[in-house]
Amino acid sequence: MRAALGHRHHPHLRDDGPGTLSRGALDARRVGERLGPLGGRLEVDAVPGWGTTVTVEVPLGPPDTPREDPLTVLGARELEVLGQLARGRRNRDIARELHISESTVKFHVAKILEKLGVGSRGEAAALAHEWGAAAARA
């Protein structure tokens, strides 16, 4: 629907290399997984000896349907830890503030990253700020 309105960015990348690039190589960087929630898509067409064409389609506007709050998968304590993490606090400071051990904080941070499907504290903090958890749940 958006494509008809011209609200999509649709770059094509082509190389004249050996044609050995696979979608798997891009999946290692979670390109397709990151495009999915945005309503985007990734296509890789590799022809051995001829090269590879990579097509990425990314919507330029907000999604057609509202996104579901990704923080709903977190428990109450995880939300408290995330709120502290989003404020830039270190594990030691979070442990002191929440009266738990630093090991417990590390455990919660690992579970938060896993449940949110992000690879770093920074990505988790960005989600917390986007969804209002940094202020409301800190």
Please describe what this structure looks like:
The protein is of the alpha+beta class. Helices cover 45% and strands 16% of the residues. It contains eight helices and four strands, in the order H-E-E-H-H-E-E-H-H-H-H-H. The chain has helices spanning 2-5, 23-27, 31-35, 76-86, 91-98, 102-116, 121-130, 133-136; strands spanning 8-9, 12-15, 41-47, 51-59. Strands 1, 2, 3 and 4 form a four-stranded antiparallel sheet that branches. A hairpin with a 3-residue loop joins strand 3 (41-47) and strand 4. Helix 4 (76-86) packs across helix 7 and helix 5 packs across helix 6. The longest helix is centred in the last third of the chain and has 15 residues, at 102-116. The model is unreliable at 1-6 (pLDDT under 50).
Number of strands: 4
Low-confidence stretches: 1-6
**Outline type:** elongated
Structural class: alpha+beta
Individual helix count: 8
Helix content range of the residues, please?
40-55%
Which range does the strand content fall in?
Answer: 15-25%
| End-to-end C-alpha gap | 39 Å
Described by strand count, sense and barrel closure, the largest sheet is: 4 strands, antiparallel
Order of helices and strands: HEEHHEEHHHHH
Radius of gyration: 20 Å
The overall pLDDT average reads: 80
Q: Features of this protein?
A:
138 residues; alpha+beta; 8 helices; elongated
